[in-house]
Task: structure prediction
Amino acid sequence: MPRRVVHFELPYDDADRASAFYRDVFDWGLETWPDAGGYVLASTGPNGDRGPTEPGFINGGLLERSPDHTAPNVVIDVDDIDAALEAVEAAGGTRLEERAPVGDMGWAAYFTDTEGNVVGLWQTKTS
Result:
C-alpha cells in the first residue's frame, strides 16, 4: 500500500519573521511549541483533534534551520518507524535522526534518500 505524505516542514532562520510571513501571506494558523525547541505548527486549513477535517490538505511545521534541515521536506506516514528506517538503509538511504516521541501523538524520525533529500517519517500512536 502506498504511504501518504501527511506533513511538511520548512526551515527558518528567524521564527518570528517566518511565522509572520506564512500567517500574513497564506493566512496559516501558527502555534509555537516551546517544549519542542521552537517548532512551530502550521495549520493550513480547518482542524479537529486529529488534524485536518477536510480532504485535500495537510498541515506542516516550521523548524529551525540546522545542518540536517536546510530545505523543505515532506513527512511520510508509516506503521512502524523502526522497520521503515531499516528499509531506507537497505535501499541505500541514511538515518539522520532516530525515532523520537512527539508529545502523546506519536513518533518522528528523519532520513536522507539516495539523492540526499531529507525526508521525515511519522508513526501515529495508536493507544
